[in-house]
Amino acid sequence: MNRMRSHWAWGYEDKFPSDDTRRAMARRFAAAFGQAPDILPLPSLEAAKIPEPRFAPTPELRAMGTTDQHERAIHTYGRGYPDVVRGFYGDFAAAPDWVFYPTSEEKIVLLYRFCEKESIALVPFGGGTSVVGGVECAAHGRFRGVACVDLSRMAKVLEVDETSRAALIQAGATGPEIAKQLDRYGFALRHYPQSFEFSTLGGWIATRAGGHYATVYTHIDDFVESVKMVTPAGVFETRPVPASGAGPSPERFVLGSEGAFGIITEAWIRVQPKPRWRASASVHFDIFERGVEVARLLAQSGLYPVNCRLLDAGEAMLHQVDDQGRVVLLLGFESADHPVQWPMARALAIATDLGGCCIDEPKYTSDGDTAAIEHSAASASAWKQAFFDAPYLGSALVSMGIMCDTFETACTWDRFRAMHEAIVKSVSDVLHKELGGGFVTCRFTHVYPDGPAPYYTFVARAKPGTELEAWAAVKAAASDAIITHGGTTTHHHAVGRVHRATWEKERPPLFEKVLLTAKHELDPIGILNPGCLLAESR
Q1: 368 pLDDT exceeds 70?
Q2: How far apart are CA 509 and CA 267, in angstroms?
Q3: Which of 163, 248, 289, 349 is 20 to 30 A from 125 (CA-CA)?
Q4: Contacts of 516 (CB under 8 A, 6+ apart)
């Protein structure tokens, strides 16, 4: 079945929450907001305001491009809260004039030459799941139009080195496409961002995406062996080796480049055998600080759990993991080589020694057991299902007049308490000032020996017509608190256009000059994703 992507919301149209589901959600939020939110009618593509294309490509480029209204709408924004709000109200003023689907690097080069000659901004799209304004570009100044590049027709696993456990994969492949192609070799990438269903390998690399593992393999960085990026100035390709001490790493230059220097076309990626043994458990705490201490000890223990996610009481309740007001730590271990009872037992001993309570027995499964099938569907099922459904529900909340969004950071353990208190206070204050109330929740998505990566959710009743202004005020308050208390602008959501001003406060001033010099060398006309990552050149 050829499923249709929603032109304004997250994901597939047929997975958007039904009216009955939205009514049930409204009842859940009624207690928090005093009354049930309204169930608003959903927008139609026909009512969307999409401007006419402003340029005409050459016949050769026209053959791989489209001006279809649905395609242009999909490729206008990412899927952050401001994107979904504007899509809901039919505002697609920033729509690209053309969307191009190249099938080779040579066609990407043709597109470069055209855009340079005709003063067209060129935006790599990936899977369009950016939440930081990474794919939105409104043409102005010297640009007379915007072209969007979608690599979804370059989505193959080209080669697998079974001995070295590496695969050469084209950048347009999505998570499910990679998983399906690697499965025939018994391998998996084991990188599962929340956007897994739609995001691409090239997008993961360009944004330094965070994935499935809570420790060790936390970012796509850890899996990249080498990378190939086609730039307007030529091909930038690195050598596939396990490690190197030869000067500054060229791979690291491409990681996080966000389409500002070139278009990533393929990469050698480290893959792993599919796990055979798994263990999962949940530990409950009465106070958040005790859970934080356990998370720190586990991160420093050398046990390396694949899941070590701490949910504060609000987060646990929001995702229906716990309804008793308790803090919940979700633990998981897995291995392709050996059973994992011992590391789970040790982790639970650490947690219970500090007052944690493991209400249910941990689940241990292995491939070949009937229980393994049940485990894959049921282990931490409430959290896992909520995790992947959250973007769909976030879009549904917009259609109910509720503001719900997230932000994340990372800091050292010694700074976490002060930063956390400042974030919760500043964001809560803005929510009350701008919207009359709301709440903030926190969870750890990843933990390191030297610090956690806290991930915050804020929810409030929006005021129609002022959503974007209120959201900007909340975002500014959060960003200020993060930078003031020594956190990073973003742990895994990239810089984009949303975080650029804050990132400028975090990065060394000389580093900006280095990046601008590289930008001029690789993209001399400055057509690539202007305004993303770096200030737009005039």
Answers
A1: no
A2: 30
A3: 248
A4: 534, 537
DSSP letter at 170 equals E
Measuring CA to CA, which residue among 235, 155, 236, 230 is closest to residue 200? 155
Q: Can you tell me the distance from the alpha carbon of 332 to that of 282, in angstroms, rounded to the nearest whole number?
A: 9
Closest CA to 9 of 488, 391, 528: 391
Q: Rounded to whole angstroms, how far apart are CA atoms 345 and 349?
A: 6
Tokens of 147: 């072209």
Q: What are the tens digits of pLDDT across the range 162-213?
A: 999 999 999 999 999 999 999 999 999 999 999 999 999 999 999 999 998 9
Give the span between the Cα atoms of 145 and 99, in whole angstroms. Answer: 12
Q: To which residue do tokens 């990469």 refer?
A: 267
**Rounded to whole angstroms, how far apart are CA atoms 148 and 150?**
7
Q: What pLDDT digit, counting tens, does each position of 115-139 carry?
A: 999 999 999 999 999 999 999 998 8
Q: List Cβ neighbours of 380 (8 Å cut-off, separation of 6 or more).
A: 280, 282, 307, 330, 332
Element (H, E) at 208: none
| Under 8 Å between Cβ of 21 and 28 | no
CA 137 from centroid of its chain's CA atoms: 19
Cα 146 to Cα 50: distance, rounded to the nearest angstrom: 13
Residue 505 main-chain phi, psi, to 5 deg: -80, -25
Residue 45 CA from chain centroid, whole number: 26
Q: Which uninterrupted H or E stretch holds 183?
A: helix 175-183
Tokens standing for residue 301: 């223990």
Residue 405 CB contacts under 8 Å (≥ 6 apart), including other chains? 80, 81, 394, 457, 458, 471, 474
Q: How many whole angstroms separate alpha carbon 347 and alpha carbon 294?
A: 9
Distance CA 384, CA 390 (A): 10
